[in-house]
Amino acid sequence: MPEIFTHPDCRVRPAALSDEAALGELDRATWSTLHAVAPRPQPPYAPFFDGRHRPEDFLVAEAQDTAGEMRPAGYIRLIPPTPLACNTHVRQIQGLAVADWARGRGVARALLRAAFAAARGEGANRMTLRVLGHNTPARALYESEGFVVEGVLPGEFFLDGRYVDDVLMGRSLAP
């Protein structure tokens, strides 16, 4: 499968149906109210890929694990935010996860940069995302990659006994 982005510690490629089990496991292992608004997944687990979450919507970062084997270290989901023709110039990040063992190695940054390249390749010139207000590490990463806050929905979610803001961020994909 062709790489679309390389970084010193990982390579990013389009997801394949064969990634189903690894990405499902990664998704469950990284679940946290820091970024998730849905309840913690419980067995029997739903498939990672389904009609709304197709392999072609995901990019996968592979990196060497502690045993020296290359395996999925993270993923990003990138989709058009609506099915409207007037909105085809925008892509939206609707999920980004990095395995604990791969954190601090630039995997999330590599996934973002690969998403920028992939979106540009599809003719997009703008990217958006939503992030929980208390997710300071993610917000700092997004800001360092050119995203700015474009809106806030105060107290949009009730998580772990408190109200949490939903922060809308966006950036241009112009070179």
Percent in helix: 10-25%
Most strands sheet: 8 strands, mixed
The coarse silhouette is: globular
Strand order across the largest sheet: 1-2-3-4-5-6-8-7
Number of helices: 3
Give the H and E element order: EEHEEEHEHEE
Strand content: 35-45%
Straight-line distance between termini: 27 Å
State the secondary-structure class: alpha+beta
How many E strands?
8
Radius of gyration: 16 Å
Unreliable segments (pLDDT under 50, ≥5 consecutive)? none
Can you give the mean pLDDT?
A: 95
In short:
Residues 10-174 form the N-acetyltransferase domain. The protein is α+β, with helices and mostly antiparallel strands and 175 residues long.
